[in-house]
Amino acid sequence: xxELMRQIGKQIRILRKNRGxxxxxxxxxxxxxxxYIGGIERGEKNISIxxxxxxxxxxxxxPGEVLGSIQSAQSEKEKSLDSLKVLLLNRSLNExxxxxxxxxxxxxxxxxxxxxxxxx
Length: 120
Prior knowledge:
By secondary structure, the protein is mainly alpha-helical. The chain contains seven helices and no strands.
């Protein structure tokens, strides 16, 4: 059980930091002291499902983003993808669609570059 608490705490820390929140700010959002948030993140606190749900709502994530990481440690790629999601959260649908089109163009260029390098 201690390993599960540690993994959940680690994931909460990653998600909190990706959102630019301090432990104190998250604590205010869930009405818990900063020291308690720190204990959760270090895997020292056995939190209730209700507390976990409040944290999930405060971080504006779905439960899978905390619990999904339990199966395997979050990779650098997953951390980067979460950071990208955070950047897009407050953008309009129109802006997100533009970013998707630009991303597709960039990926096409990357793929063309890979093909060019392998054919040389």
